[in-house]
Design goal:
Residues 175-605 form the GS catalytic domain. Residues 72-165 form the GS beta-grasp domain. The chain is an alpha+beta fold and 718 residues long. The protein has three domains: 14-169, Ubiquitin-like (UB roll), CATH 3.10.20; 177-570, 2-Layer Sandwich (Creatine Kinase, Chain A, domain 2), CATH 3.30.590.10; 584-714, Four Helix Bundle (Hemerythrin (Met), subunit A), CATH 1.20.120.1560. The strands form three sheets. Strands 10, 11, 12, 13, 14, 15, 16, 17 and 18 form a nine-stranded mixed beta sheet that branches. Strands 1, 2, 3, 6, 7, 8 and 9 form a seven-stranded mixed beta sheet that branches. The two termini are 21 Å apart.
Length: 718
């Protein structure tokens, strides 16, 4: 697809059509008064409420803008706890008092809609018969138009709540966490003398990894079609061991897909910046420029939506599962996270002066405290069936939450920790370390540590443990709340030393020294893949939850989750409901994979193997009748053993499946126990079945094997 053309008939530059389908401040400026525009600027930047009269004017302006672009419908676009998005389209069509057709879109229709909430996950927070749910416009995220071949629709980013006001989505907790973190961060800044700061926002840039394979091949495998993961598949003779795919030339077919993807995303205001081949064959990445976390989360949902839909237009399939193929790298979604104050200053930028260094070091210590104290819940926020195949597999960070700062920052903190109580001087520390400007940290002295789940990378932290398929709203909300908790604890210490509302530099450094010493066990500068680190982490008291059921168990511990309640992100019932939803999603995802494996083994693998075994036995008999040695005899024994293993494992899986097939196993009071059974028994048997089937794949002639192999799928785009 070519870029849009301008009035002169040439291809438009990106800047000319970027955001053309977004009702942003540029579009509003042409349709709203200067006063209304100023209010919208403030609301979109720092939040706030919009009264009914302004909502009416915004609705009228949005309707005219959308209709001029050909839109016929509108919808409240929200993010239920399915990990996907949801929408219900309403036409602009209405009738006046005389019964004449008109187009209408009012303030109340903009502010709120009422979708049925009964079929969305609620984790038992409401009864099944309580079906009423509400979507409410989120004015901090601009409206936009989605174009399809069949029409155009105005999308209204929205929160999703129940009749009684409980949050049923991922957006609401993120908005709450942003607000609370801003309040706590402002308090921190005021205590250390930064009195002019009025608000603090979080910025996010999620790197999206995914696989691309041919659609015809994908459709021949129900495991990929239904679960997103290949439950069977023998390792290809060539994988990623030559390291020749990473940053290599993008295949022309994929390049065409990228070109159209970027055009559509640019029109929606999604600032995608980078595209490249990833490490594994068939794997790619797309990454945006940083935005406020709420808008970045909305945009990442659009990225995932368009990855899938545009791939299909090119005869391709985009796989977002964390581990669609065994034996090669899985996919993550590295969430790059930072904080910015009202002056536009990045609070995680080390800065160029000692005074700025103190701001940076203060927030760094608050983050260290928050991550240390709440690491287990942060781990739970990225727990999923797909991520279980990825975390700690020498391709992604381990399941142990730790923080990597880099050599220079590590030295700075160690110097502060071991300095003389009465003579700690930030500027002297920097100079003693050979740094005339701490800005060098951002430029030269911080390496990337791909084995760290939470690494400082110059002027931001990279949360690498987030999986590729899910919403970034939830882990970002948990991260915000954890940092808020760390800053709150730091603020208590600052307040105890403050005079006239401000802490002196010496007192501040003394407090930071204490925090640095207290949080040292969460810092790790080495290889997170090593067995030595696992042993050391255990000695440090850091948790290592190997799978989703283990990781999620922490959410039932009120002591561990109280920071979420204090931050106003969730209440106790919210947390338990989300625990139940995550457990249920884990169980159902695993059962889909098990059922796919059973069906493929029974209806594809075994029939082919029995036919081939019959042919082998015929060859053995022919050799015997002619008194000739039969090389097929040994093959028959190996082959028969593998077939028998498949059959016996299948029977075990089906027997286990029957035990949890009744509805009671998936009821909320049993879902936790069921998830542990799935993890400890089903997934082990599924792996055993895979090993047997993959052995058979290596014995059956290529042209007889019933579905595409790894070598065909992973290298089909080259």
């Amino acid at each position: 697809m070519q870029r849009p053309q301008n009035a002169e008939g040439r291809q438009s530059r990106i800047a000319e059509y970027f955001g053309s389908n977004v009702f942003d401040l540029r579009a509003m400026a042409k349709r709203l008064s200067a006063h209304d525009l100023e209010i919208m600027k403030k609301v979109m930047k720092i939040g706030g409420k919009i009264d009914s009269s302004l909502a009416e004017r915004v609705a009228a302006a949005a309707r005219e803008w959308a209709m001029e672009k050909g839109a016929t419908h509108y919808c409240h676009w929200f993010q239920p706890q399915t990990g996907a998005t949801a929408e219900k389209h309403d036409a602009f069509l209405w009738f006046d008092k005389e019964g004449n057709p008109i187009e209408r879109f009012t303030g109340p229709e903009l502010l709120q809609s009422e979708p049925d909430a009964s079929s969305f996950p609620s984790g038992g927070i409401r009864s099944t018969f309580e079906a009423r749910g509400y979507t409410g416009w989120d004015p901090s995220s601009p409206m936009f138009i989605v174009e399809t071949e069949n029409g155009k629709t105005l999308y209204i980013p929205s929160v999703f709540i129940s009749y009684h006001g409980e949050a049923l989505d991922f957006k609401t907790p993120l908005l709450r966490s942003n607000n609370t973190l801003s309040i706590e961060a402002i308090k921190t800044l005021h205590l250390i003398g930064e009195k002019k700061v009025t608000h603090v926002t979080t910025s996010v840039g999620p790197e999206q990894e995914f696989f691309i394979i041919d659609k015809k091949q994908a459709m021949k495998r129900i495991d990929l079609s239904l679960s997103g993961r290949s439950v069977f598949g023998r390792k290809s003779p060539k994988g990623q061991e030559l390291e020749d795919h990473y940053f290599a030339h993008i295949p022309s077919r994929v390049q065409a897909f990228f070109n159209e993807l970027e055009v559509e995303l640019y029109k929606l205001g999604v600032p995608v910046k980078t595209r490249h081949n990833e490490v594994a064959p068939g794997q790619f990445e797309i990454a945006p420029i940083y935005e406020s976390s709420n808008i970045a989360a909305d945009h990442n949902q659009l990225v995932m939506k368009y990855l899938k839909s545009i791939a299909l237009k090119h005869g391709l399939v985009a796989l977002l599962h964390e581990k669609p193929f065994a034996g090669v790298n899985g996919s993550g979604k590295h969430v790059n996270w930072s904080m910015t104050d009202s002056s536009g200053r990045n609070l995680l930028d080390p800065g160029a002066t000692p005074h700025e260094n103190l701001v940076f070091l203060t927030f760094l210590c608050g983050i260290l405290q928050g991550i240390l104290d709440n690491s287990e819940v942060l781990r739970a926020s990225v727990a999923s069936a797909g991520n279980d195949h990825r975390l700690g597999a020498n391709e992604a960070p381990p399941a142990i939450i730790s923080i990597f700062l880099g050599n220079t920052l590590d030295k700075i903190l160690n110097a502060i920790e071991t300095g003389n109580n009465d003579k700690i001087n930030a500027e002297k520390i920097m100079i003693d370390l050979g740094l005339s400007h701490i800005q060098n940290v951002a430029k030269d002295n911080t390496d990337r540590n791909r084995t760290s789940p939470f690494a400082f990378t110059g002027n931001k932290f990279e949360f690498r443990a987030v999986g590729s398929s899910g919403s970034i709203n939830y882990p970002t909300a948990i991260l915000n709340a954890a940092v808020c908790d760390g800053l709150a604890k730091l603020n208590k210490k600052l307040e105890a030393k403050a005079h006239n509302g401000t802490v002196s530099s010496n007192d501040l450094l003394m407090i930071l020294r204490h925090v640095i010493k207290e949080t040292k066990k969460i810092r790790f500068e080495g290889n997170g893949y090593s067995h030595e680190w696992r042993d050391e982490a255990l000695q440090r008291g850091l948790s290592n939850f190997a799978n989703t059921p283990e990781a999620l168990s922490v959410l039932s511990n009120k002591e561990k989750t109280q920071f979420l309640v204090k931050a106003g992100v969730f209440n106790d019932d919210d947390i338990l409901s989300r625990l139940a939803i995550q457990q249920e999603r884990y169980v159902k995802q695993c059962l889909i994979e098990v059922n796919c494996a059973i069906e493929m083994a029974q209806t594809q693998v075994l029939p082919v193997c029995f036919s081939y075994l019959k042919l082998l036995l015929k060859n053995v008999k022919m050799a015997s009748d002619l008194n000739l040695p039969s090389p097929a005899k040994k093959v028959v024994e190996t082959f028969s053993d593998a077939v028998s293993h498949v059959v016996s494992t299948l029977e075990t899986l089906k027997t286990q499946l029957e035990k949890i097939s009744d509805g009671d196993a998936l009821e909320h009071h049993n879902i936790g126990n069921t998830s542990h059974i799935i993890s400890t028994h089903f997934m082990l048997k599924l792996q055993n079945l895979r090993e047997a089937v993959d052995t058979l794949e290596g014995l059956v002639p290529h042209d007889l094997w019933p579905y595409p192999k790894y070598s065909e799928m992973l290298f089909g785009m080259e």
